[in-house]
């Protein structure tokens, strides 16, 4: 009897603490931004062979980001219930949430709770953060959280590289008797490093980090981690950034624009020569053109997976959460994730879910291109969205990306509505005078 009473009291204390945290995040959105970024940093820090990355409670495996996702999702639902419903902003997100709930419910009824949650875990993290982000707006607090996370992950990357050395992505290193990926930070963390670099170099509002040389830390980390998708995303982001800077500078100082562009043209071959001179970096690049390379494996994997699940029912409703990814590949059977959020959206939610997912990006990019709140912020919005679009081709979007996408979309939709009101008021006043 006493033990049951203690367990009941402990359960009530946990429930009360959880409720207070949800209320705090709902009232202070900045806490949610730091919680999402901090949760990702902690999760990546726990990816070590001797450290546990989950806790088993009542037979259910719980990861740190599971708790963060539940807090953000609950706070987002609470905030949404107290705000006016904006169809252009909230409708696609609510529909995607409904598809996720149906997807998980089908998985629970077919495979059980734990299998279904494990299968849909990354999407639960992403959609929960997306819903919370849609109830707030892109703010300096979110920028600071991303920049600091970028610097912490960069420091963690250098610490890991110092211990294991710089190796090609085709090699594995042995840590504590276990063969692991030589890259100490995953692609999801490397994307945050790149986005933190973009934000920092375009008007960071962190007084402690005003010196521009700090940008070299995440820049070097993004290169040395050897995530090829991050290199591609960074390349396209760099083109967008330089194009915006050149157009702005040509109006004020054409000589400076031509000079900087010439310097970049001269420096780029030197950078490429330096990469070619590094055996590990060159090996990572040459792997992309080798037979059965990682990219070729993924493209063949996507095609095989779609061929295995191309029935009208699968294409319309998707597969239940926890379904096997098994498909024939290069004469064998593959079980790994397809490593593409677009393919996953199609497999999990069917064609409607994929269209909703693409709609979120298309709506955000279209509004970002029309943003009139300043050139610096427009470049940040476009490049962050561009890195997400490129990254999702070959990887899963993390909880930070859901938070950023929702906050970006909320900011762009609200600013667009404010601009329409400003245009409408003068026309109404003119009509009144007439």
Helices, by number, come to: 16
Helix/strand order: HHEEHHHHEEHHHHHHHEEHHH
Calculate the terminal CA-CA distance, rounded to whole Å. 82 Å
Structural class: mainly alpha
Number of strands: 6
The share of residues in extended strands comes to under 5%
How many individual domains?
Answer: 1
| Rg over alpha carbons | 23 Å
Quickly list its features.
single chain, 434 residues, mainly alpha, two-stranded antiparallel sheet, two-stranded antiparallel ribbon, 4% strand
Describe the structure.
The protein is mainly alpha-helical. It has one domain. The protein is 73% helix and 4% strand. The chain is built from 16 helices and six strands. Strands 1-2 form a two-stranded antiparallel sheet. Strands 3-4 form a two-stranded antiparallel ribbon. Strand 1 and strand 2 form a beta hairpin. The longest helix has 35 residues.
Blueprint of the fold:
Elements: H1 2-27, H2 29-45, E1 55-57, E2 60-62, H3 64-81, H4 87-111, H5 113-134, H6 140-164, E3 173-175, E4 178-180, H7 187-200, H8 216-224, H9 228-252, H10 254-277, H11 279-286, H12 294-308, H13 312-317, E5 327-329, E6 332-334, H14 341-369, H15 375-391, H16 399-433
Antiparallel strand pairs: 1-2, 3-4, 5-6
């Amino acid at each position: 009897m006493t033990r049951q009473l203690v367990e009941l009291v402990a359960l009530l204390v946990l429930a009360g603490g959880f409720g207070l945290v949800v209320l705090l995040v709902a009232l202070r959105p900045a806490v949610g931004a730091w919680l999402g970024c901090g949760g990702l940093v902690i999760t990546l820090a726990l990816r070590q062979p001797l450290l546990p990355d989950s806790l088993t409670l009542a037979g259910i495996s719980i990861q740190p980001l599971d708790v963060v996702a539940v807090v953000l999702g609950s706070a987002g639902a609470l905030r949404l219930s107290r705000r006016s419903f904006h169809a252009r902003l909230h409708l696609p997100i609510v529909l995607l949430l409904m598809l996720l709930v149906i997807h998980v419910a089908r998985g629970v009824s077919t495979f059980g709770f734990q299998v279904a949650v494990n299968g849909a875990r990354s999407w639960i993290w992403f959609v929960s953060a997306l819903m919370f982000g849609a109830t707030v707006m892109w703010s300096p607090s979110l920028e600071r959280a991303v920049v600091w996370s970028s610097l912490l992950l960069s420091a963690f990357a250098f610490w890991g590289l110092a211990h294991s050395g710089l190796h090609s992505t085709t090699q594995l290193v042995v840590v504590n008797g276990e063969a692991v990926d030589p890259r100490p930070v995953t692609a999801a963390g490397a994307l945050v490093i790149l986005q933190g670099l973009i934000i920092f170099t375009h008007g960071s509002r962190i007084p402690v980090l005003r010196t521009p040389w700090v940008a070299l830390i995440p820049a070097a980390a993004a290169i040395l981690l050897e995530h090829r998708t991050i290199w591609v995303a960074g390349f396209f982001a760099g083109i967008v950034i330089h194009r915006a800077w050149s157009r702005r500078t040509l109006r004020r100082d054409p000589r400076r624009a031509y000079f900087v562009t010439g310097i970049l043209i001269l420096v780029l071959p030197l950078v490429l020569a330096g990469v070619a001179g590094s055996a590990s970096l060159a090996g990572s690049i040459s792997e992309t053109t080798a037979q059965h390379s990682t990219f070729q494996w993924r493209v063949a994997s996507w095609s095989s997976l779609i061929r295995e699940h191309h029935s009208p029912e699968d294409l319309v409703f998707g597969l239940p959460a926890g379904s096997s990814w098994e498909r024939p590949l290069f004469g064998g059977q593959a079980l790994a994730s397809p490593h593409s959020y677009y393919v996953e959206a199609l497999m999990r939610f069917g064609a409607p879910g994929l269209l909703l997912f693409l709609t979120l990006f298309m709506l955000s990019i279209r509004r970002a291109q029309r943003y009139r709140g300043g050139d610096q912020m427009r470049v940040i919005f476009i490049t962050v969205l561009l890195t997400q679009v490129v990254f999702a081709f070959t990887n899963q979007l993390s909880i930070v990306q859901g938070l950023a996408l929702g906050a970006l979309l909320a900011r762009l939709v609200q600013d667009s509505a404010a601009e329409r009101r400003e245009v409408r008021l003068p026309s109404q006043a003119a009509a009144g005078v007439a």
